[in-house]
Design brief:
alpha+beta, five-stranded mixed β-sheet, 4 helices, elongated
């Protein structure tokens, strides 16, 4: 009996250690794509060849539809894709510029037209891809938005504070206002939709970026806006994969490179001569402090 109890306790301790380890708390940052292939009459088409190409890296995925005419591709990196569907006796279906985001479960259906495979029906209009496979309700920011939206310092987490329902923690308790904050730990101190301040999760490429669960979990570091490919902000409703959080989830996906050399150059400058004084300082007649950042 004692040996049985000891073994039970030991297994429970090992399970708790595994569940609470940083490695086990990683979240899914890959996307998946599913779809239904039909003929002009609406009948499903089994055995159709489906090819998905990442236009950034040139990576190709090939599969075929099953008996129900449906295909599924998982573990897809966030990026832009072209989808091609072929079947004997039908024109080739091609949809370009499909934007897949991390953790997204998208669906694209293809209706083939009668004709030769050498003919192509190309769909260029980018429709909004609905996430019909998960409970996620997110605000998504792509590369262009992250780099071009105005920021008073180059930390992408500042864009979280621009969302409705997000409050900077301790802002009204004598601490510095959010526009004066610049370090990674303080930028992670926010509440979402009335949740407890700092009780959120921040992940980078699926790995937790905070030192502990609950409030005041230290944010280890944040990549520059130039190295971020996309950022997703879930303020309340999200899948069960995001555990140990009583607030919201911020998921950052960094750039993974491509098949062409590229880069950029920037100079970021802030000067107190270009800033107005805080109203609290104006009320007490206190001049604004000197501030320089390059």
């Amino acid at each position: 009996m004692q040996k049985f109890l000891f073994l039970t306790v030991a297994l429970a301790v090992l399970a708790a250690a595994f569940l609470c380890s940083p490695e086990s708390s990683a979240q899914v940052t890959f996307a998946s794509l599913t779809g239904l292939v039909t003929d002009p009459g609406g009948a499903v088409m089994p055995g159709a060849e489906v090819e998905l190409t990442n236009t950034d890296t040139g990576e190709e995925r090939v599969t075929s539809t099953g008996e129900t005419g449906r295909f599924t591709m998982s573990q897809l990196k966030a990026g832009t894709y072209d989808l091609a569907v072929e079947s004997a006796g039908f024109k080739r279906f091609l949809q370009v510029n499909i934007r897949l985001q991390g953790s997204q479960d998208a669906e694209i259906n293809a209706s083939l037209e009668l004709g030769e495979v050498t003919e192509t029906v190309e769909v260029t209009a980018q429709a909004v891809l609905l996430d019909t496979q998960s409970a996620n309700q997110t605000s998504d920011l792509n590369t262009e938005e992250i780099t071009q939206l105005p920021l008073n310092f180059r930390n992408p987490l500042l864009l979280v504070h621009a969302n409705a329902g997000v409050m900077s923690a301790f802002q009204n308790a004598g601490r510095r206002a959010v526009q004066d904050r610049f370090n990674d730990q303080e930028m992670a101190l926010f509440s979402m939709n009335g949740g407890r301040e700092a009780s959120n999760t921040i992940t980078i490429d699926g790995v937790s970026n905070k030192g502990g669960a609950g409030d005041w979990g230290a944010n280890f570091g944040t990549p520059s806006v130039d190295s971020v490919q996309e950022m997703q902000i879930s303020r309340n409703t999200y899948d069960a994969q995001y555990g140990r959080v009583g607030n919201g989830v911020v998921s950052i996906v960094t750039k993974g490179g491509g098949d062409q050399y590229h880069g950029n150059l920037f100079w970021f400058h802030r000067n107190d001569n270009l800033d107005s004084n805080e109203w609290r300082r104006n009320r007490t007649g206190t001049p604004k402090p000197e501030f320089k950042r390059n």
